[in-house]
TrEMBL record:
Region (Disordered): 1-20
Name listed for the protein in its UniProt record: U6 small nuclear RNA (adenine-(43)-N(6))-methyltransferase
Keywords assigned: Methyltransferase, Transferase
Gene Ontology CC terms: nucleus
GO biological process: rRNA base methylation
Natural source organism: Stachybotrys elegans
Amino acid sequence: MERGGKPAVDAAGDDRSTTVSSLVADDAKDRYYRDLYTTAPDFKDLARLDPDFAAITKGRDIDFNNPASVMQLTKTLLRLDFNLSIDLPDNRLCPPVPNRHNYILWLKDLLDTSTYDQPRRGVVGLDIGTGSSCIYPLLGCAQRPWSFIATDIDPQNLEWSRKNVALNNFQHRIKVVARRPEDSLLPLDDLNLNSIDFCMTNPPFTRSKIEMIVQGGEAGFVDRILEESLVLRERVQWYTAMFGFLASAIRLVDKLRALGVDNYAVTEFIQGTKTRRWAVAWSFQTMRPVQDAARGVKTALSKNILPAVTEADVVRLSLPEGIGKMAEDLSSAVSKLELISWQWDKEKLEGIGRAPGIVWNRAWRRRRKREQEGTTDKMADDPTVFGFKIRIHVARDGLRIGCRWLEGHDAAAFESFQGFLKTAAQSAHRSG
Ligand code: SAH
């Protein structure tokens, strides 16, 4: 799909069927959205496609110092790329579309990869401080069948946000909620919501280093979210926040680590050559996101704040004579473990399993056996479920056995599982 040849907007809500063709269409849509701003927009193109944009740029380059031009650029991109209309007051922040879109793309990855349900349905999100544009909920609803609660404390912002929701006919999917400064930031109890899938925020902040570390700065605002998250815990799967300063992101990760919150994600949003933002997500639930979403920071400066890896190649092997036979042997070696579940897909050469602990570990099995024979005290109930995915990647020059950590809090379990898998793959390879 190209700009202007936009995908149909999904106003249908959650009731899409999971036919193969709808999955293919979803894939194409997701690819379209992911690639949108990988290169900078071509302003000549925009002028050709949108008369309003042409009228303001008059054949010249866009003037970023002119608020009217900047606002038109935002409106034009929303219209051409997302089929969204917005209206904004002159005295409020005009959100740059590519940066806001980056946050939504990251949320999609986080949510899609931290669930066993494919595709994931009925997602509900909370946008804390939605502004006058309501831009995050609009961008989210334009590309996925999500629903949102959008909060703000500013009466004018609330009024404009409601207008923008109505302008796009999203009243049944986006609920704009007025809050007071002294209210909680996550109004689950006030709204009678047992749980939601994520919260997001582009926190209010002032561009001063001092503001950053005091109450009212972005770090202070997100600290409040962190405190509320320690009470709400699993009721929100992903708590997320964007930052204008790397120092705020580092500070939050330090706090998470000190609190023992191991399931978190860090990313950076880079737009153009100078604008950079950071975002952090954390979860008290057990599902782990893909590595690209969890460790989305490329700059060396901030690499030491990244969470544990969730993906690894355990071994490379030459092509065996019968890949089918080898795959079957590998699957059967895994299925001999004492698993909660194991499903192997012969076509895709991949399988998903859940283990009630480190079941491949000899000491663990001996203990379990003695326990069953009644010769030892019962093991303390071990809630450490370990979920994993195994995949045989086939290339012309050989095989690669990849492994992904899907569920659990024990990074050491993922490491030792890789050892088990390597041995199992090598032995299946010999017999294959
Ligand atoms: N999400 C929009 C606006 C971000 S600006 C965007 O990305 O463009 C931050 C917003 O948070 C402002 O609209 C401000 O009014 C709002 N805000 C400040 N304190 C708040 C609070 N306690 N609860 C909800 N919103 C708040």
